[in-house]
Amino acid sequence: NAGVTQTPKFRVLKTGQSMTLLCAQDMNHEYMYWYRQDPGMGLRLIHYSVGEGTTAKGEVPDGYNVSRLKKQNFLLGLESAAPSQTSVYFCASSQVWGGNQPQHFGDGTRLSIL
Amino acid sequence: DQQVKQNSPSLSVQEGRISILNCDYTNSMFDYFLWYKKYPAEGPTFLISISSIKDKNEDGRFTVFLNKSAKHLSLHIVPSQPGDSAVYFCAAKGRGSTLGRLYFGRGTQLTVWP
User: Fold this and answer.
1) Nearest residue on chain B to A105, judged by CA atoms?
2) What's the mean pLDDT when you consider all of chain B?
3) Measured between beta carbons, which residues in chain B are less than 8 angstroms from residue A98?
4) How confident is the model at residue A98 (pLDDT cuts 50, 70, 90)?
5) Helix (H), strand (E) at residue B96
């Protein structure tokens, strides 16, 4: 069971460069999420998707864009990377929005912006 | 403004003893509370949850207690084992378009020593 797979696992960028983080889930989940985690902080929601072709802003969306062209994939883009975007990025998916059903997380992408 | 708070960044417990991790929340509209466990270089994994209509939920060595009037919940691990050493995140969610997503605390690093 792969669950939620994130690529790449590590990346170093220079300020101003762009990149795309890929998240893939094989559980046929409707909902997908991108979070960032900074030292001493909890996970903060960047963007989320409630189904194929839909996206919505979370708590900290500035500087990021997302796309959900296929149900199983959720892409997070940085158009012009900034040092403040140095963080660990986690993707998650869930079958339902509310209730006590948990979100399932990938192992993260560690991104450093120089 | 953080809606879920974990005020203890770290906790150290001897193997075999009880570990108690605490969490406070501010939004009375939260319906469900979840605990996640995170090892280094891995994504958070779901541990246990509780609905707001209950005051206790138990799963093996893990028990979560909810005190709605105090807006407080706690996770008890008995007996604690060295493999329990990890960061524990408390998370909450409610109903509706905004509350259905997860709100995370900053986490508590649990260290269980032999």
Assistant:
1) B43
2) 94
3) 31-32, 93-96, 99-100
4) confident
5) helix B96-99
